[in-house]
Amino acid sequence: MQRDTALATIEGAPMTFGEFFWGLLFFYLIFFYLMTLFRIFGDLFSDPDTSGLGKAAWIVFLLFVPFLSMIIYLITRGRRMAERTMARAEAANASQQDYIRRVAGSNGHDPAAQIAKGHELLDSGAITREEFDVLKAKALA
Hints:
Layout: H1 2-12, H2 17-46, H3 52-64, H4 66-106, H5 111-124, H6 129-140
């Protein structure tokens, strides 16, 4: 009977600050572990210099000895990992800037291109001089 009372008291007791803190720390460490593991997997699979056998060995090592292999991976390949991440970010930024330049130029927002197109239309006789002046004014506005 004494044992049942002790269990009921434990189950109904509110969580103390220490229990909350340790639980929070535990979940933070799990999150940090998974974040690091996925970052390593992402870097490993995006590295063109590592062979398939090397990638497989790292994965087996990461699965069976996770903490030790994570530390070894970050020590041995950490600098190159950061360099590859920066190179991918710079390539993505350059690609985005190129795309923006192409799209902005093809939408007719370039005043010089609009005036040149209007001049071609004027020379071909498709528009009058007054219509060309209106197009030129819109392009320069």
